[in-house]
Design a protein that fits this description.
By secondary structure, the protein is of the alpha/beta class. The protein has four helices and four strands; from the N terminus they run αββααβαβ. The protein has helices at residues 3-7, 46-63, 66-72, 92-106, and strands at 23-26, 32-38, 80-86, 111-115. A four-stranded mixed β-sheet has the order 1-2-3-4. The longest helix has 18 residues, at 46-63. The chain starts with a helix and ends with a strand.
């Protein structure tokens, strides 16, 4: 599969657009809760896993923009969360990948939270 096709806009995929923040809740005290919403089950095929990682990566990039800092201040693990609201029937490999991604997100000044309550 072509590299760009993995990341292309795909309205049929559980993660349709990798280049937008689904929800950003700015905290009055500084920081944000940034939500990735995966409302339908995500499978463990290579494309889906790559799209999930890319979505997280785009959120981490956003956290270091002037736009984010103007609204939320500087992100820290104390004030910023990336919350993945994921369908509970997603493949086990998806949850394993999310768990393995937690240190990566922490190293980039946020927490990764997995939430199966849709």
């Amino acid at each position: 599969m072509e590299y760009e096709n993995v990341y292309a806009l795909d309205d049929e995929h559980p993660i349709p657009n990798l280049d937008v923040v689904d929800v950003n809740t700015v905290k009055k005290s500084g920081g944000s809760d940034l939500f990735i919403v995966v409302a339908t089950p995500l499978s463990d095929d290579h494309r889906s896993l790559q799209r999930l990682l890319r979505k997280i990566e785009r959120y981490l990039e956003f956290m270091h923009t002037a736009e984010f800092r103007a609204e939320s201040g500087i992100s820290t693990i104390e004030n910023t969360n990336i919350i993945v609201k994921i369908h509970p029937d997603s493949a086990p490999a998806v949850f394993e990948l999310l768990e393995r991604s937690k240190p990566w997100v922490t190293d980039n000044d946020a927490n990764l939270v997995i939430d199966t309550q849709l």
